[in-house]
Protein backbone atom coordinates (compact mmCIF):
# COMPACT_ATOMS: atom_id res chain seq x y z
CA UNK A 1 0.00 0.00 0.00
CA UNK A 2 1.48 3.35 -1.00
CA UNK A 3 1.13 6.42 1.23
CA UNK A 4 -1.26 7.77 -1.36
CA UNK A 5 -3.51 4.70 -1.06
CA UNK A 6 -3.44 4.89 2.71
CA UNK A 7 -4.37 8.55 2.70
CA UNK A 8 -7.19 7.84 0.26
CA UNK A 9 -8.53 5.11 2.55
CA UNK A 10 -8.25 7.37 5.58
CA UNK A 11 -10.19 10.14 3.83
CA UNK A 12 -12.89 7.70 2.75
CA UNK A 13 -13.27 6.63 6.36
CA UNK A 14 -13.75 10.24 7.46
CA UNK A 15 -16.08 11.13 4.60
CA UNK A 16 -18.14 7.96 4.64
CA UNK A 17 -18.81 8.36 8.36
CA UNK A 18 -20.23 11.83 7.86
CA UNK A 19 -22.05 10.88 4.65
CA UNK A 20 -23.80 7.85 6.10
CA UNK A 21 -24.65 9.43 9.43
CA UNK A 22 -25.72 12.68 7.76
CA UNK A 23 -28.04 10.67 5.54
CA UNK A 24 -29.49 8.76 8.48
CA UNK A 25 -30.15 11.97 10.39
CA UNK A 26 -31.79 13.50 7.32
CA UNK A 27 -34.35 10.69 7.41
CA UNK A 28 -35.89 12.50 10.40
CA UNK A 29 -37.08 15.37 8.27
CA UNK A 30 -40.46 16.64 9.44
CA UNK A 31 -41.21 13.84 11.91
CA UNK A 32 -39.20 14.62 15.03
CA UNK A 33 -40.82 14.97 18.46
CA UNK A 34 -40.76 18.76 18.58
CA UNK A 35 -40.19 21.60 16.13
CA UNK A 36 -36.88 22.67 17.68
CA UNK A 37 -35.59 19.15 17.03
CA UNK A 38 -36.68 19.26 13.39
CA UNK A 39 -34.52 22.32 13.05
CA UNK A 40 -31.61 20.87 15.01
CA UNK A 41 -31.60 17.55 13.18
CA UNK A 42 -31.75 19.20 9.78
CA UNK A 43 -28.89 21.42 10.85
CA UNK A 44 -26.81 18.46 12.03
CA UNK A 45 -27.44 16.56 8.81
CA UNK A 46 -26.59 19.64 6.81
CA UNK A 47 -23.27 20.11 8.61
CA UNK A 48 -22.37 16.47 8.09
CA UNK A 49 -23.17 16.55 4.39
CA UNK A 50 -21.03 19.68 4.14
CA UNK A 51 -18.14 17.90 5.86
CA UNK A 52 -18.63 14.98 3.48
CA UNK A 53 -18.13 17.29 0.52
CA UNK A 54 -14.75 18.29 1.94
CA UNK A 55 -13.55 14.82 2.95
CA UNK A 56 -14.68 13.02 -0.19
CA UNK A 57 -13.62 15.93 -2.38
CA UNK A 58 -10.11 15.62 -1.01
CA UNK A 59 -10.28 11.81 -1.28
CA UNK A 60 -11.02 12.08 -4.99
CA UNK A 61 -8.18 14.55 -5.44
CA UNK A 62 -5.73 12.29 -3.61
CA UNK A 63 -6.86 9.25 -5.59
CA UNK A 64 -6.09 11.13 -8.78
CA UNK A 65 -8.54 9.29 -11.04
CA UNK A 66 -10.81 12.24 -11.60
CA UNK A 67 -13.56 11.08 -9.26
CA UNK A 68 -15.56 13.85 -7.57
CA UNK A 69 -17.11 13.74 -4.10
CA UNK A 70 -20.42 12.97 -5.82
CA UNK A 71 -18.90 10.10 -7.80
CA UNK A 72 -17.60 8.62 -4.58
CA UNK A 73 -20.86 9.12 -2.71
CA UNK A 74 -23.26 7.96 -5.38
CA UNK A 75 -21.38 5.46 -7.50
CA UNK A 76 -19.64 3.11 -5.08
CA UNK A 77 -21.18 -0.11 -3.83
CA UNK A 78 -21.34 -1.34 -0.25
CA UNK A 79 -17.93 -3.04 -0.15
CA UNK A 80 -16.18 0.20 -1.07
CA UNK A 81 -17.69 2.14 1.83
CA UNK A 82 -15.39 2.73 4.80
CA UNK A 83 -17.71 4.08 7.52
CA UNK A 84 -17.96 2.39 10.89
CA UNK A 85 -20.98 0.15 11.41
CA UNK A 86 -22.35 2.41 14.16
CA UNK A 87 -23.40 5.13 11.71
CA UNK A 88 -25.19 2.88 9.24
CA UNK A 89 -27.50 1.32 11.82
CA UNK A 90 -31.14 2.32 11.38
CA UNK A 91 -32.39 5.31 13.34
CA UNK A 92 -34.70 3.46 15.71
CA UNK A 93 -36.60 5.84 17.94
CA UNK A 94 -35.53 9.41 18.66
CA UNK A 95 -33.59 8.32 21.75
CA UNK A 96 -31.60 5.78 19.78
CA UNK A 97 -30.83 8.35 17.10
CA UNK A 98 -29.57 10.86 19.66
CA UNK A 99 -27.58 8.24 21.55
CA UNK A 100 -25.86 7.20 18.31
CA UNK A 101 -25.25 10.84 17.53
CA UNK A 102 -23.68 11.45 20.93
CA UNK A 103 -21.46 8.35 20.74
CA UNK A 104 -20.28 9.51 17.31
CA UNK A 105 -19.98 13.24 18.13
CA UNK A 106 -17.84 12.45 21.15
CA UNK A 107 -15.44 10.53 18.91
CA UNK A 108 -15.55 13.13 16.14
CA UNK A 109 -14.79 16.02 18.48
CA UNK A 110 -11.79 14.14 19.90
CA UNK A 111 -10.56 13.08 16.47
CA UNK A 112 -10.96 16.49 14.85
CA UNK A 113 -9.16 18.11 17.78
CA UNK A 114 -6.12 16.02 16.85
CA UNK A 115 -6.49 16.38 13.11
CA UNK A 116 -6.26 20.16 13.42
CA UNK A 117 -2.53 19.52 13.96
CA UNK A 118 -2.20 17.19 10.97
CA UNK A 119 1.00 17.45 8.92
CA UNK A 120 -1.24 17.60 5.85
CA UNK A 121 -2.54 21.14 5.66
CA UNK A 122 -5.59 20.13 3.66
CA UNK A 123 -6.61 17.71 6.39
CA UNK A 124 -5.91 20.27 9.12
CA UNK A 125 -8.04 22.87 7.33
CA UNK A 126 -11.04 20.57 7.01
CA UNK A 127 -10.68 19.52 10.64
CA UNK A 128 -10.57 23.12 11.74
CA UNK A 129 -13.80 23.96 9.93
CA UNK A 130 -15.59 20.79 10.99
CA UNK A 131 -14.52 20.97 14.61
CA UNK A 132 -16.48 24.18 15.16
CA UNK A 133 -19.65 22.45 13.99
CA UNK A 134 -18.94 19.27 15.89
CA UNK A 135 -18.31 21.16 19.14
CA UNK A 136 -21.89 22.35 18.85
CA UNK A 137 -23.22 18.91 17.87
CA UNK A 138 -21.63 17.16 20.83
CA UNK A 139 -22.90 19.77 23.25
CA UNK A 140 -26.39 19.33 21.90
CA UNK A 141 -26.46 15.55 21.68
CA UNK A 142 -24.92 15.29 25.17
CA UNK A 143 -27.60 17.61 26.58
CA UNK A 144 -30.34 15.53 25.01
CA UNK A 145 -28.86 12.26 26.27
CA UNK A 146 -28.71 13.74 29.77
CA UNK A 147 -32.21 15.19 29.53
CA UNK A 148 -33.77 11.92 28.41
CA UNK A 149 -31.61 9.65 30.56
CA UNK A 150 -32.44 11.67 33.65
CA UNK A 151 -36.03 12.39 32.60
CA UNK A 152 -39.02 10.13 33.24
CA UNK A 153 -38.69 6.39 34.05
CA UNK A 154 -39.88 5.70 30.50
CA UNK A 155 -37.32 7.96 28.84
CA UNK A 156 -34.60 6.57 31.10
CA UNK A 157 -35.45 2.99 30.11
CA UNK A 158 -35.45 3.87 26.42
CA UNK A 159 -32.07 5.59 26.65
CA UNK A 160 -30.53 2.68 28.56
CA UNK A 161 -31.88 0.30 25.89
CA UNK A 162 -30.37 2.52 23.19
CA UNK A 163 -27.00 2.55 24.92
CA UNK A 164 -27.08 -1.25 25.39
CA UNK A 165 -27.85 -1.68 21.72
CA UNK A 166 -25.25 0.74 20.39
CA UNK A 167 -22.35 0.40 22.78
CA UNK A 168 -21.09 -2.83 21.15
CA UNK A 169 -20.46 -0.75 17.99
CA UNK A 170 -18.32 1.88 19.69
CA UNK A 171 -15.08 -0.08 19.79
CA UNK A 172 -14.70 -0.05 16.01
CA UNK A 173 -13.96 3.68 16.17
CA UNK A 174 -10.70 2.85 17.94
CA UNK A 175 -9.49 -0.07 15.82
CA UNK A 176 -6.13 0.32 14.06
CA UNK A 177 -4.71 -1.28 10.94
CA UNK A 178 -2.02 -0.66 8.31
CA UNK A 179 -3.85 2.45 7.03
CA UNK A 180 -3.72 4.00 10.47
CA UNK A 181 -0.08 3.02 10.94
CA UNK A 182 0.77 4.81 7.69
CA UNK A 183 -1.18 7.90 8.81
CA UNK A 184 0.63 7.95 12.13
CA UNK A 185 4.07 7.64 10.58
CA UNK A 186 3.30 10.43 8.11
CA UNK A 187 2.01 12.62 10.96
CA UNK A 188 -1.33 12.98 9.17
CA UNK A 189 -3.62 11.40 11.76
CA UNK A 190 -3.39 9.95 15.25
CA UNK A 191 -3.57 6.27 16.10
CA UNK A 192 -7.30 5.71 16.76
CA UNK A 193 -6.49 3.70 19.87
CA UNK A 194 -4.82 6.77 21.37
CA UNK A 195 -8.17 8.61 21.43
CA UNK A 196 -9.88 6.08 23.64
CA UNK A 197 -8.98 7.53 27.03
CA UNK A 198 -10.20 11.02 26.20
CA UNK A 199 -13.32 9.51 24.67
CA UNK A 200 -14.05 7.36 27.69
CA UNK A 201 -13.63 10.30 30.03
CA UNK A 202 -16.07 12.37 27.99
CA UNK A 203 -18.77 9.75 27.57
CA UNK A 204 -18.55 8.52 31.16
CA UNK A 205 -19.09 12.02 32.47
CA UNK A 206 -22.15 12.56 30.27
CA UNK A 207 -23.62 9.09 30.70
CA UNK A 208 -23.28 9.23 34.48
CA UNK A 209 -25.01 12.61 34.51
CA UNK A 210 -27.67 10.90 32.40
CA UNK A 211 -27.90 8.20 35.13
CA UNK A 212 -27.11 5.53 32.53
CA UNK A 213 -24.87 2.48 32.95
CA UNK A 214 -22.10 1.84 30.45
CA UNK A 215 -22.26 -1.86 29.50
CA UNK A 216 -19.34 -3.85 30.92
CA UNK A 217 -18.61 -5.99 27.85
CA UNK A 218 -15.68 -4.85 25.73
CA UNK A 219 -16.93 -6.81 22.72
CA UNK A 220 -17.11 -4.82 19.51
CA UNK A 221 -18.71 -5.39 16.13
CA UNK A 222 -16.49 -4.32 13.27
CA UNK A 223 -16.00 -4.60 9.53
CA UNK A 224 -17.20 -1.19 8.35
CA UNK A 225 -14.03 0.87 8.34
CA UNK A 226 -12.11 -1.91 6.55
CA UNK A 227 -15.05 -2.61 4.25
CA UNK A 228 -14.71 -6.32 5.02
CA UNK A 229 -18.29 -6.77 6.21
CA UNK A 230 -20.97 -4.07 6.53
CA UNK A 231 -24.41 -4.63 8.02
CA UNK A 232 -27.37 -5.47 5.79
CA UNK A 233 -28.68 -1.97 6.39
CA UNK A 234 -26.13 -0.09 4.31
CA UNK A 235 -27.22 -1.63 1.01
CA UNK A 236 -30.79 -0.47 1.49
CA UNK A 237 -29.63 3.00 2.36
CA UNK A 238 -27.51 3.20 -0.79
CA UNK A 239 -30.37 1.89 -2.90
CA UNK A 240 -32.33 4.94 -1.96
CA UNK A 241 -29.51 7.47 -1.79
CA UNK A 242 -27.94 6.52 -5.13
CA UNK A 243 -31.10 5.84 -7.07
CA UNK A 244 -31.23 8.89 -9.35
CA UNK A 245 -27.54 8.72 -10.22
CA UNK A 246 -27.82 5.03 -10.99
CA UNK A 247 -31.05 5.27 -12.96
CA UNK A 248 -29.99 8.26 -15.07
CA UNK A 249 -26.23 7.94 -15.54
CA UNK A 250 -24.38 10.96 -16.85
CA UNK A 251 -27.12 13.49 -16.13
CA UNK A 252 -26.30 16.84 -14.54
CA UNK A 253 -28.50 17.79 -11.61
CA UNK B 1 -50.82 31.63 -0.17
CA UNK B 2 -50.30 29.51 2.88
CA UNK B 3 -53.47 30.75 4.54
CA UNK B 4 -56.49 30.13 2.33
CA UNK B 5 -60.14 30.24 3.15
CA UNK B 6 -59.47 31.77 6.53
CA UNK B 7 -62.92 32.57 7.82
CA UNK B 8 -62.99 36.09 9.19
CA UNK B 9 -64.64 36.24 12.58
CA UNK B 10 -67.48 38.69 13.15
CA UNK B 11 -70.41 39.85 11.12
CA UNK B 12 -68.66 42.00 8.57
CA UNK B 13 -67.35 45.53 8.32
CA UNK B 14 -69.01 47.90 10.76
CA UNK B 15 -69.86 51.46 9.88
CA UNK B 16 -68.24 54.22 11.93
CA UNK B 17 -71.48 54.73 13.88
CA UNK B 18 -71.73 51.05 14.80
CA UNK B 19 -68.22 51.02 16.27
CA UNK B 20 -67.47 51.47 19.94
CA UNK B 21 -64.94 54.12 20.88
CA UNK B 22 -62.22 51.46 21.21
CA UNK B 23 -63.08 50.10 17.82
CA UNK B 24 -62.91 53.54 16.27
CA UNK B 25 -59.48 54.21 17.76
CA UNK B 26 -58.30 50.82 16.63
CA UNK B 27 -59.51 51.34 13.07
CA UNK B 28 -57.90 54.77 12.98
CA UNK B 29 -54.56 53.27 13.91
CA UNK B 30 -54.90 50.59 11.26
CA UNK B 31 -55.93 53.16 8.65
CA UNK B 32 -52.92 55.32 9.42
CA UNK B 33 -50.59 52.30 9.12
CA UNK B 34 -49.63 52.14 12.77
CA UNK B 35 -48.78 48.64 13.96
CA UNK B 36 -50.98 46.91 16.50
CA UNK B 37 -48.85 45.35 19.23
CA UNK B 38 -49.74 42.44 21.58
CA UNK B 39 -50.51 44.69 24.58
CA UNK B 40 -52.75 47.00 22.58
CA UNK B 41 -56.52 46.79 22.68
CA UNK B 42 -57.93 44.91 19.67
CA UNK B 43 -61.38 43.62 18.70
CA UNK B 44 -61.95 40.00 19.73
CA UNK B 45 -62.79 39.10 16.15
CA UNK B 46 -59.53 40.59 14.91
CA UNK B 47 -57.64 38.48 17.43
CA UNK B 48 -59.59 35.32 16.55
CA UNK B 49 -59.11 35.80 12.82
CA UNK B 50 -55.39 36.45 13.19
CA UNK B 51 -54.97 33.31 15.28
CA UNK B 52 -56.65 31.30 12.52
CA UNK B 53 -54.60 32.92 9.79
CA UNK B 54 -51.19 32.82 11.48
CA UNK B 55 -51.89 29.34 12.82
CA UNK B 56 -52.80 28.06 9.38
CA UNK B 57 -49.67 29.63 7.95
CA UNK B 58 -47.53 28.02 10.68
CA UNK B 59 -49.12 24.61 10.11
CA UNK B 60 -48.42 24.96 6.39
CA UNK B 61 -44.73 25.47 7.06
CA UNK B 62 -44.67 22.34 9.23
CA UNK B 63 -46.67 20.05 6.96
CA UNK B 64 -44.80 21.58 4.02
CA UNK B 65 -41.65 19.83 5.24
CA UNK B 66 -43.14 16.48 4.27
CA UNK B 67 -43.40 16.66 0.47
CA UNK B 68 -39.85 18.01 0.32
CA UNK B 69 -38.56 15.63 2.95
CA UNK B 70 -39.83 12.94 0.60
CA UNK B 71 -36.81 13.67 -1.61
CA UNK B 72 -34.07 14.50 0.88
CA UNK B 73 -32.93 10.89 1.04
CA UNK B 74 -32.95 10.67 -2.78
CA UNK B 75 -31.38 14.02 -3.66
CA UNK B 76 -29.10 13.38 -6.64
CA UNK B 77 -25.93 15.17 -5.46
CA UNK B 78 -24.40 16.20 -2.16
CA UNK B 79 -24.95 19.84 -3.01
CA UNK B 80 -28.64 19.32 -3.83
CA UNK B 81 -29.05 17.37 -0.64
CA UNK B 82 -27.44 20.17 1.37
CA UNK B 83 -29.57 22.85 -0.31
CA UNK B 84 -32.76 20.89 0.31
CA UNK B 85 -31.84 20.25 3.94
CA UNK B 86 -31.18 23.94 4.43
CA UNK B 87 -34.52 24.80 2.85
CA UNK B 88 -36.47 22.38 4.99
CA UNK B 89 -34.65 23.69 8.04
CA UNK B 90 -35.73 27.21 7.05
CA UNK B 91 -39.35 26.08 6.72
CA UNK B 92 -39.30 24.60 10.21
CA UNK B 93 -37.85 27.92 11.39
CA UNK B 94 -40.71 29.77 9.69
CA UNK B 95 -43.13 27.54 11.54
CA UNK B 96 -41.41 28.49 14.77
CA UNK B 97 -41.53 32.29 14.16
CA UNK B 98 -45.18 32.04 13.21
CA UNK B 99 -46.18 29.98 16.24
CA UNK B 100 -44.35 32.59 18.35
CA UNK B 101 -46.31 35.35 16.61
CA UNK B 102 -49.54 33.46 17.30
CA UNK B 103 -48.56 33.00 20.94
CA UNK B 104 -48.53 36.79 21.40
CA UNK B 105 -52.28 36.60 20.79
CA UNK B 106 -52.81 34.29 23.75
CA UNK B 107 -52.80 30.82 22.26
CA UNK B 108 -50.06 28.23 22.87
CA UNK B 109 -48.16 26.24 20.28
CA UNK B 110 -49.42 23.01 21.80
CA UNK B 111 -53.04 24.20 21.54
CA UNK B 112 -52.53 25.06 17.89
CA UNK B 113 -50.90 21.68 17.27
CA UNK B 114 -53.88 19.93 18.84
CA UNK B 115 -56.17 21.89 16.52
CA UNK B 116 -54.15 20.80 13.52
CA UNK B 117 -53.98 17.14 14.49
CA UNK B 118 -57.69 16.96 15.26
CA UNK B 119 -58.44 18.43 11.84
CA UNK B 120 -60.10 21.59 13.21
CA UNK B 121 -57.38 23.78 11.71
CA UNK B 122 -56.13 23.49 8.15
CA UNK B 123 -52.88 23.96 6.29
CA UNK B 124 -52.42 25.01 2.67
CA UNK B 125 -54.04 22.67 0.15
CA UNK B 126 -50.82 22.55 -1.89
CA UNK B 127 -49.14 20.21 0.57
CA UNK B 128 -51.76 17.58 -0.07
CA UNK B 129 -50.26 16.96 -3.50
CA UNK B 130 -47.44 14.45 -3.92
CA UNK B 131 -43.84 15.04 -5.03
CA UNK B 132 -43.28 12.27 -7.56
CA UNK B 133 -40.06 13.02 -9.39
CA UNK B 134 -36.97 15.10 -8.64
CA UNK B 135 -38.20 18.02 -10.76
CA UNK B 136 -41.07 18.38 -8.30
CA UNK B 137 -38.53 19.70 -5.82
CA UNK B 138 -37.58 22.34 -8.35
CA UNK B 139 -41.22 23.09 -9.14
CA UNK B 140 -42.13 23.39 -5.47
CA UNK B 141 -39.41 25.99 -4.92
CA UNK B 142 -40.26 27.84 -8.10
CA UNK B 143 -44.06 27.76 -7.92
CA UNK B 144 -45.03 27.07 -4.31
CA UNK B 145 -42.46 29.29 -2.65
CA UNK B 146 -43.10 31.72 -5.50
CA UNK B 147 -46.82 31.83 -4.72
CA UNK B 148 -46.07 32.11 -1.01
CA UNK B 149 -43.90 35.16 -1.65
CA UNK B 150 -46.60 36.73 -3.79
CA UNK B 151 -48.88 36.56 -0.77
CA UNK B 152 -46.37 37.32 1.91
CA UNK B 153 -44.63 40.35 0.45
CA UNK B 154 -47.76 42.49 0.91
CA UNK B 155 -48.28 40.93 4.34
CA UNK B 156 -45.04 42.53 5.48
CA UNK B 157 -47.26 45.62 5.78
CA UNK B 158 -49.98 43.85 7.73
CA UNK B 159 -51.42 45.68 10.72
CA UNK B 160 -50.34 43.22 13.42
CA UNK B 161 -46.74 44.00 14.45
CA UNK B 162 -45.45 40.50 15.32
CA UNK B 163 -47.00 39.03 12.15
CA UNK B 164 -45.56 41.76 9.99
CA UNK B 165 -42.08 41.26 11.46
CA UNK B 166 -42.29 37.48 11.00
CA UNK B 167 -43.21 38.07 7.35
CA UNK B 168 -40.24 40.36 6.77
CA UNK B 169 -37.86 37.71 8.08
CA UNK B 170 -39.54 34.89 6.22
CA UNK B 171 -39.80 36.64 2.86
CA UNK B 172 -36.03 36.97 2.52
CA UNK B 173 -35.61 33.22 2.86
CA UNK B 174 -38.55 32.39 0.62
CA UNK B 175 -37.06 34.32 -2.28
CA UNK B 176 -33.88 32.37 -1.83
CA UNK B 177 -35.89 29.14 -1.98
CA UNK B 178 -37.60 30.27 -5.12
CA UNK B 179 -34.32 30.99 -6.88
CA UNK B 180 -32.94 27.61 -5.88
CA UNK B 181 -36.08 25.88 -7.12
CA UNK B 182 -35.84 27.68 -10.43
CA UNK B 183 -32.20 26.67 -10.66
CA UNK B 184 -33.19 22.99 -10.35
CA UNK B 185 -35.78 23.54 -13.10
CA UNK B 186 -33.12 25.09 -15.34
CA UNK B 187 -30.84 22.09 -14.90
CA UNK B 188 -33.70 19.73 -15.65
CA UNK B 189 -35.04 21.71 -18.60
CA UNK B 190 -31.57 21.87 -20.16
CA UNK B 191 -30.76 18.27 -19.28
CA UNK B 192 -31.37 14.90 -20.88
CA UNK B 193 -34.66 13.93 -22.50
CA UNK B 194 -35.66 12.12 -19.32
CA UNK B 195 -34.95 15.21 -17.22
CA UNK B 196 -36.97 17.44 -19.55
CA UNK B 197 -39.82 15.00 -19.24
CA UNK B 198 -39.60 15.15 -15.45
CA UNK B 199 -39.67 18.95 -15.54
CA UNK B 200 -42.73 19.09 -17.77
CA UNK B 201 -44.47 16.40 -15.72
CA UNK B 202 -43.86 18.37 -12.53
CA UNK B 203 -45.27 21.56 -14.06
CA UNK B 204 -48.30 19.69 -15.42
CA UNK B 205 -49.21 18.36 -12.00
CA UNK B 206 -48.32 21.39 -9.86
CA UNK B 207 -49.58 24.29 -11.96
CA UNK B 208 -53.25 24.27 -10.96
CA UNK B 209 -52.61 23.33 -7.32
CA UNK B 210 -50.29 26.36 -7.21
CA UNK B 211 -53.06 28.62 -8.51
CA UNK B 212 -55.31 27.21 -5.79
CA UNK B 213 -52.90 28.45 -3.15
CA UNK B 214 -54.43 31.94 -3.40
CA UNK B 215 -57.81 30.64 -2.33
CA UNK B 216 -61.18 30.76 -4.09
CA UNK B 217 -62.20 33.37 -6.59
CA UNK B 218 -63.10 36.77 -5.10
CA UNK B 219 -66.76 36.33 -5.92
CA UNK B 220 -66.81 33.22 -3.66
CA UNK B 221 -64.55 34.60 -0.97
CA UNK B 222 -66.56 35.24 2.16
CA UNK B 223 -65.82 37.96 4.69
CA UNK B 224 -62.81 39.19 2.75
CA UNK B 225 -63.88 42.83 3.19
CA UNK B 226 -63.41 42.80 6.97
CA UNK B 227 -59.94 41.25 6.71
CA UNK B 228 -59.00 43.87 4.12
CA UNK B 229 -60.27 46.65 6.40
CA UNK B 230 -58.20 45.27 9.26
CA UNK B 231 -55.18 44.95 6.93
CA UNK B 232 -54.60 41.34 7.72
CA UNK B 233 -55.31 40.74 4.08
CA UNK B 234 -53.82 43.27 1.70
CA UNK B 235 -54.82 42.14 -1.79
CA UNK B 236 -57.70 39.99 -2.95
CA UNK B 237 -57.21 36.38 -4.00
CA UNK B 238 -57.73 37.10 -7.68
CA UNK B 239 -55.33 40.04 -7.67
CA UNK B 240 -52.59 37.89 -6.22
CA UNK B 241 -53.34 35.00 -8.57
CA UNK B 242 -53.18 37.28 -11.60
CA UNK B 243 -49.86 38.69 -10.45
CA UNK B 244 -48.53 35.16 -10.00
CA UNK B 245 -49.62 34.06 -13.47
CA UNK B 246 -48.12 37.15 -15.08
CA UNK B 247 -44.83 36.60 -13.29
CA UNK B 248 -44.63 32.88 -13.99
CA UNK B 249 -45.55 32.72 -17.69
CA UNK B 250 -42.30 34.26 -18.96
CA UNK B 251 -40.29 32.13 -16.53
CA UNK B 252 -41.87 28.95 -17.90
CA UNK B 253 -41.20 30.16 -21.42
CA UNK B 254 -37.56 30.77 -20.61
CA UNK B 255 -37.35 27.18 -19.35
CA UNK B 256 -38.92 25.92 -22.57
CA UNK B 257 -41.77 24.36 -20.63
CA UNK B 258 -45.46 24.50 -21.47
CA UNK B 259 -48.00 25.66 -18.91
CA UNK B 260 -50.88 23.18 -19.12
CA UNK B 261 -53.56 25.73 -20.06
CA UNK B 262 -54.86 26.08 -23.61
CA UNK B 263 -56.61 29.34 -22.75
CA UNK B 264 -53.49 31.04 -21.51
CA UNK B 265 -52.78 34.14 -23.57
CA UNK B 266 -51.75 37.75 -23.22
CA UNK B 267 -54.70 40.13 -23.10
CA UNK B 268 -53.52 43.44 -24.54
CA UNK B 269 -56.53 45.31 -23.27
CA UNK B 270 -56.19 44.21 -19.64
CA UNK B 271 -52.41 44.23 -19.76
CA UNK B 272 -52.46 40.81 -18.17
CA UNK B 273 -52.72 37.14 -19.08
CA UNK B 274 -56.03 35.41 -19.48
CA UNK B 275 -55.88 31.99 -17.89
CA UNK B 276 -58.10 29.09 -16.86
CA UNK B 277 -59.28 28.81 -13.31
CA UNK B 278 -58.28 25.69 -11.44
CA UNK B 279 -60.96 23.10 -10.89
CA UNK B 280 -62.65 24.56 -7.81
CA UNK B 281 -64.55 21.35 -7.09
CA UNK B 282 -61.20 19.63 -6.72
CA UNK B 283 -60.00 22.44 -4.47
CA UNK B 284 -62.94 22.06 -2.11
CA UNK B 285 -62.45 18.29 -2.10
CA UNK B 286 -58.83 18.76 -1.03
CA UNK B 287 -59.87 21.22 1.67
CA UNK B 288 -62.42 18.71 2.94
CA UNK B 289 -59.70 16.10 3.30
CA UNK B 290 -59.97 14.26 0.01
CA UNK B 291 -56.76 15.39 -1.69
CA UNK B 292 -54.27 12.79 -2.86
CA UNK B 293 -52.11 13.08 0.29
CA UNK B 294 -54.35 14.45 3.07
CA UNK B 295 -54.54 11.14 4.89
CA UNK B 296 -50.81 10.43 4.57
CA UNK B 297 -49.81 13.91 5.70
CA UNK B 298 -52.07 13.88 8.74
CA UNK B 299 -51.15 10.35 9.72
CA UNK B 300 -47.47 11.21 9.46
CA UNK B 301 -47.87 14.28 11.67
CA UNK B 302 -50.04 12.45 14.19
CA UNK B 303 -47.57 9.57 14.41
CA UNK B 304 -44.64 11.97 14.82
CA UNK B 305 -46.46 13.79 17.62
CA UNK B 306 -47.51 10.60 19.41
CA UNK B 307 -44.14 8.87 19.00
CA UNK B 308 -42.46 11.98 20.34
CA UNK B 309 -44.59 12.25 23.48
CA UNK B 310 -42.10 10.38 25.68
CA UNK B 311 -39.31 12.65 24.47
CA UNK B 312 -41.19 15.84 25.29
CA UNK B 313 -42.24 14.45 28.67
CA UNK B 314 -38.70 13.25 29.43
CA UNK B 315 -37.10 16.58 28.61
CA UNK B 316 -39.73 18.43 30.61
CA UNK B 317 -39.26 16.15 33.63
CA UNK B 318 -35.52 16.73 33.44
CA UNK B 319 -35.95 20.50 33.30
CA UNK B 320 -38.20 20.30 36.39
CA UNK B 321 -35.66 18.18 38.27
CA UNK B 322 -32.89 20.59 37.38
CA UNK B 323 -34.91 23.57 38.57
CA UNK B 324 -35.78 21.77 41.81
CA UNK B 325 -32.13 20.89 42.45
CA UNK B 326 -31.10 24.46 41.86
CA UNK B 327 -33.74 25.69 44.25
CA UNK B 328 -32.67 23.18 46.91
CA UNK B 329 -29.09 24.37 46.55
CA UNK B 330 -30.04 28.01 46.88
CA UNK B 331 -32.15 27.20 49.94
CA UNK B 332 -29.23 25.34 51.55
CA UNK B 333 -26.88 28.30 51.16
FE1 LIG C 1 -41.55 28.95 4.53
FE1 LIG D 1 -44.48 30.68 4.17
FE1 LIG E 1 -39.80 28.29 1.51
Helix content of chain A: 55-70%
The stretches of 5 or more residues of chain A where confidence is low (pLDDT under 50) are none
- CATH topology category name of chain A: Ferritin
Name the quaternary structure.
Answer: heterodimer
CATH homology superfamily name of chain A: Ferritin, core subunit, four-helix bundle
Ligand inventory reads: fe (ii) ion
Q: Quick one: overall form of chain A?
A: globular
Strand order of the largest sheet of chain B: 1-2
Percent strand of chain A: under 5%
Give the helices and strands of chain B as they follow along the chain.
Answer: HHHHHHHHHHEEHHH
Distance between the termini of chain B: 57 Å
Strand content of chain B: under 5%
SSE arrangement of chain A, N to C: HHHHHHHHHHH
Which keywords apply here?
heterodimer, A: 253 residues, mainly alpha, Ferritin, 11 helices, 65% helix, 0% strand, B: 333 residues, two-stranded antiparallel ribbon, 2 strands, 66% helix, globular, binds fe (ii) ion
Task: Give an account of the 3D structure.
The complex is a heterodimer of chains A (253) and B (333). Chain A has 253 residues and is mainly alpha-helical. Chain A has a single domain, classed as Ferritin, core subunit, four-helix bundle (Ferritin), CATH 1.20.1260.10. Chain A has eleven helices and no strands. In chain A, helix 1 runs antiparallel to helix 2, helix 2 runs antiparallel to helix 6 and helix 6 runs parallel beside helix 9. The mean pLDDT of chain A is 97. In chain B, helix 2 runs antiparallel to helix 4, helix 4 packs antiparallel against helix 7 and helix 6 runs antiparallel to helix 10. With 333 residues, chain B is mainly α. Chain B is globular and about 75 Å long. At the A-B interface, helix 1, helix 2, helix 3, helix 6 and helix 7 of A face helix 3, helix 4, helix 12 and helix 13 of B. The structure holds fe (ii) ion (3 copies). The site of one fe (ii) ion has 5 residues of chain B, from helix 4 and helix 7. The site of one fe (ii) ion has 4 residues of chain B, from helix 7.
